[in-house]
Amino acid sequence: MTIRVLLADDQALLRSAFRVLVDSEADMEVVGEASDGAEAVRLAREQRADVVLMDIRMPGTDGLAATRLISADPGLAHVRVVMLTTFEVDEYVVQSLRAGASGFLGKGAEPDELLNAIRVAAGGEALLSPAATKGLIAQFLAQGDVLDDGRDPARAERLDALTGREREVLVQVAGGHSNDEIAERLEVSPLTVKTHVNRAMAKLGARDRAQLVVIAYESGLVRPRVE
């Protein structure tokens, strides 16, 4: 199936460059362009987009607010948001993950990285830029509504619904590992891992694997490591 991509950025030149790149691929197409977050939400609904490349900073409704609107809309539950940021280290990125984004990518990424990010987000298989995202979570996630030991008590209580194996899998997901990698580590089949991931997502109310990573850190199941 063709991946339907929506471009949301206030810079027309950048949108044009992304359009040429995306439309050059046989398995994806650009179905719309938005210059602000409000327009992105409207077009995501009207054009039945699968993936939104969303700039964080835009005039009016910014990318963060637009991501919250998309993730809160049951009619857009299938839409995956990839945040685009000028800088790899940006506190708004973690806020975006909390709001429902599937991950992020720096605007300076190579073309192949961008195209792969779209495919990964559309498939919901893995967190984008796992190493960098984990670094951001380690730096910023403990700031906010959590206890001194880094735990969000509400998130921690929700983990009680998970089985022991589901917790193990969640720890591996938070490490940025794919289903195949987790299967090898835990000596089970990839299909079994996928089942555990899906059950954990359902029990924790997570949209995708990116949300599982955030929950793993906020609950204290996984602790940020300071390099």
UniProtKB/TrEMBL annotation:
Gene3D superfamilies: 3.40.50.2300. Residues 4-122 form the Response regulatory domain. GO terms for molecular function: DNA binding. Keywords: DNA-binding, Phosphoprotein, Transcription, Transcription regulation. SMART domains: HTH_LUXR, REC. GO terms for biological process: phosphorelay signal transduction system; regulation of DNA-templated transcription. The modification 4-aspartylphosphate is found at residue 55. Residues 155-220 form the HTH luxR-type domain. It comes from the Bacteria. InterPro entries: CheY-like_superfamily, NreC/VraR/RcsB-like_REC, Sig_transdc_resp-reg_C-effctor, Sig_transdc_resp-reg_receiver, Tscrpt_reg_LuxR_C, WalR-like. The keyword Phosphoprotein applies. This is DNA-binding response regulator. It comes from Streptomyces lacrimifluminis.
